[in-house]
Amino acid sequence: MREHDVVIIGGGPAGLAAAAAARRKGAEDILILERDGVLGGILNQCIHNGFGLHTFKEELTGPEYAYRFIQMIEKEKIPYLLNTIVIEITKNREITYINSEEGLVTIKAKAIVLAMGCRERARGALNIPGFRPAGVYSAGTAQRLVNIEGFSVGKEVVILGSGDIGLIMARRMTLEGAKVKAVAEIMPYSGGLKRNIVQCLDDYGIPLLLEHTVVKIEGKHRVSGIVLAKVDKNRKSIPGTEIHYDCDTLLLSVGLIPENELSRCADISLNAVTSGPVVNQQFETSIEGVFACGNVLHVHDLVDYVSEEAALAGENAAVFAKEGRKDRALPEVELKGENGVRYTVPQKLNVKEMPDEITVRFRVGDVYKDRYISVYFNDQRVIHRKKKVLAPGEMEQLVLKKSSLEAYGDLKKIVVCTEVD
Predict the structure, then answer these.
(1) What is the mean pLDDT of the segment spanning 97-126?
(2) What sections of 161-288 are H helices per DSSP?
């Protein structure tokens, strides 16, 4: 069986950043497995700008950002296989993949990096009444059809969901000459970045209807209209609040789900909130030598953060491939979110193995104003930082220092939460 030092599953922004970092850390034998026909992942269809401000200190489009990392891979001569689908990974780090040239192949890796990204939640998960006419697309599918395939998906559009892809497609469809009549959001807040609400909706006069959802899709062969209704606190439609829109297209931007079928089949522990793997500060999953990064771990708002986390995962995978784990009996500290903080990444810490500092990223569960972000070591509050606004669409982060954790003594758990005072 062929063996590699580090095998990276996914050739999008996370996989590319992990591969480049693993090479810098000394890994010689690296292989990237990508199911698409080109490297770059979802960034290839994100032709708008706004990428790279943190990583490259300049504003790039999605393809430009991806190309920077593809150049690194080419320069380092890191091999990759395209049009290759991984169908299984095992606990002893065996990987089975299939492609048209080699057929069915099983290889072994000293370390694996999971970088499969995420997928869109489909209409079937929403239980919207009506037929199944043409004209109903997920926002990401519409983005690919417009930006890569060169098709026009519709002229009169309603968008359900205010995630970043939906907001960006509202602007994109407008620039293509379509009329975007409304963006509806079932929650009382938008799921996207504030800058996207301003630049993609407000600048083009597109209304955002919060606490509204689609209750009916009209049309049998092609969408002819939709009906929106206001929802109550239980997200149930309120009779008498219906609004009818004539349209030929409905775009769905109703959430992203980490692509974790491989992780689940390998029996990797998954977080119930993020649907991604539970990881420690090295981005190592519950299976030794298997690391996770990017949107397969938790859905990010900025690709710069994806690259940053992926670089750490790649470096740690390279070290593991070379040295293995030095002390497998080290006690782990639980790290979790409470009181408004939905989750944290990482969820576990090995204090002795952690670097001088780590970045903890998390999201809140509602819109909060004038709240404090607090961190407790066991029951002692050690961080208390005020934030003017906290919103689910904006990822938050804080830094924990190794010296602070070591100085505490018998540390069992770390809690990140929101507080009024």
Answers:
(1) 92
(2) 164-175, 194-196, 261-265
